[in-house]
């Protein structure tokens, strides 16, 4: 038996890093996909110290071909993907009268479209019991007008999670987003480690009571 594997898309030092460490402590091997080589190497080193075997790839996740190839390489190498976690979003401080259509579509490509790419690439390696988790945000329900594209992304990615779960459920694979109703901070209930713990728990819901969205209010 091989160790279980989590693929973290949009890996970095925040929630995604905390979640990767949480899974590593539980005996998972980890594959990291992100855009910052230095951050990926640093996180990989931390995970290896926790006993995980770690692979990483640098890719712009809006590049469909590069992202698909990277996730397929991870899957072919390990023979399995047990959890796919999706973290990316774009913060662009522009209100709806400043934001261009091109900018909106570029941000949605990152915050929503890249989940579609990642899920499709991972699907051949996900089996019954597999999970897709997503870092969501209160911006889906209460967008800040000065960052108009972020609310669109978070509403869109949550909607896509509902559709992914309905599509994959017959094969025993489930999807869930955690809606973080607060601002990430270094202390208090919204630290990356606390949010990662909620994501961990969301992936381990009882199947009969599965929710595709889990709100976290601290």
Automatic annotation (TrEMBL):
The keyword Cytoplasm does not apply. GO terms for molecular function: oxidoreductase activity. It comes from the Bacteria. The keyword Cytoplasm does not apply. InterPro entries: NAD(P)-bd_dom_sf, SDR_fam. Keywords: Oxidoreductase. Belongs to the short-chain dehydrogenases/reductases (SDR) family. This is NAD(P)-dependent dehydrogenase (Short-subunit alcohol dehydrogenase family). It comes from Nocardioides soli.
């Amino acid at each position: 038996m091989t160790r279980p594997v989590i693929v973290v898309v949009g890996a970095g030092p925040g929630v995604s890093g905390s979640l990767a460490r949480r899974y590593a402590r539980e005996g998972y091997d980890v594959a990291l996909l992100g855009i910052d080589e230095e951050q990926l190497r640093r996180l990989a080193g931390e995970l290896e110290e926790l006993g995980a075997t770690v692979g990483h790839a640098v890719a712009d996740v809006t590049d469909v071909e590069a992202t698909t190839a990277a996730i397929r390489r991870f899957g072919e190498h390990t023979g399995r993907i047990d959890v796919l976690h999706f973290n990316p979003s774009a913060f662009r401080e522009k209100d709806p009268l400043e934001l261009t259509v091109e900018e909106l579509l570029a941000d949605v490509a990152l915050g929503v479209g890249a989940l579609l790419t990642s899920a499709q690439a991972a699907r051949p390696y996900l089996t019954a019991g597999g999970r897709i988790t997503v870092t969501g945000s209160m911006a889906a329900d209460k967008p800040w007008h000065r960052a108009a594209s972020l609310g669109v992304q978070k509403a869109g990615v949550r909607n896509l999670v509902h559709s992914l779960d309905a599509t994959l459920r017959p094969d025993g694979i489930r999807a869930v987003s955690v809606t973080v109703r607060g601002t990430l901070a270094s202390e208090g209930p919204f630290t990356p480690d606390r949010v990662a713990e909620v994501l961990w728990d969301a992936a381990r819901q009882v199947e009969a009571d599965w929710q595709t969205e889990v709100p976290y209010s601290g």
